[in-house]
Design brief:
7 strands, 182 residues, 7-stranded mixed sheet, single chain, 25% helix, Aconitase, domain 4, alpha/beta
């Protein structure tokens, strides 16, 4: 995993639920099938209300997003416990979500799937940063630099190596907790 990501950011507010991240009608897509994983990513964040989010997360006719970093308010990923939510964001090309807080199950699903790095911010960055601003996320210093300001994030701690490995099962195999797949 790269130690920094520099990307435009996509900014959302509070209580973005899993139905906004990936609406229920797309849950029949199977993430372990490459074409369906890709398709799942193309639908990431389509549940956001158009009047509040006029900029499309995945541009029309595209399958990937230009935003590798999502900035969010409080309680990101609330709602149902679908693991498709972090998978859809990861499939779209997102590498990290920086939020004021996460729903616990969404945070756990980020770690278990290895799709996204969920960084907690002590500040309401969604009030400071705008969609399209370019930011650099530094994994070794747990900082986000945007518009000339650097913000300290809560360290990922013990979950980082699990996400680096590609999720819980890969981490368990790599560390010898379970036998490697034949």
């Amino acid at each position: 995993m790269a130690h920094t990501i520099t990307s435009k950011v996509f900014v959302v507010r509070d209580n973005i639920d899993t139905d906004q991240i990936i609406p229920a009608q797309y849950l029949a897509l199977v993430p372990t099938i490459a074409e369906e994983y890709e398709k799942l990513g193309s639908f990431a964040l389509v549940g956001l209300p158009d009047d509040q989010y006029p900029v499309k997360f995945v541009p029309e006719g595209e399958i990937k997003t230009p935003y590798q970093i999502v900035i969010a308010g409080r309680n990101f990923g609330c709602g149902s416990s679908r693991e498709h939510a972090p998978i859809a964001l990861g499939a779209a090309g997102v590498q990290a979500v920086v939020a004021e807080s996460f729903a616990r199950i969404f945070f756990r699903n980020c770690v278990a799937t290895g799709e996204l790095y969920p960084f907690d911010s002590g500040l309401r960055l969604c009030d400071i940063v705008q969609t399209g601003d370019e930011a650099t996320l530094d994994f070794d210093h747990d900082t986000l630099t945007v518009n000339g300001s650097t913000y300290q994030l809560k360290p990922l701690g013990d979950v980082r190596p699990v996400i680096d490995a590609g999720g819980l099962f890969n981490y368990a195999r790599q560390s010898g907790m379970i036998a490697a797949a034949e």
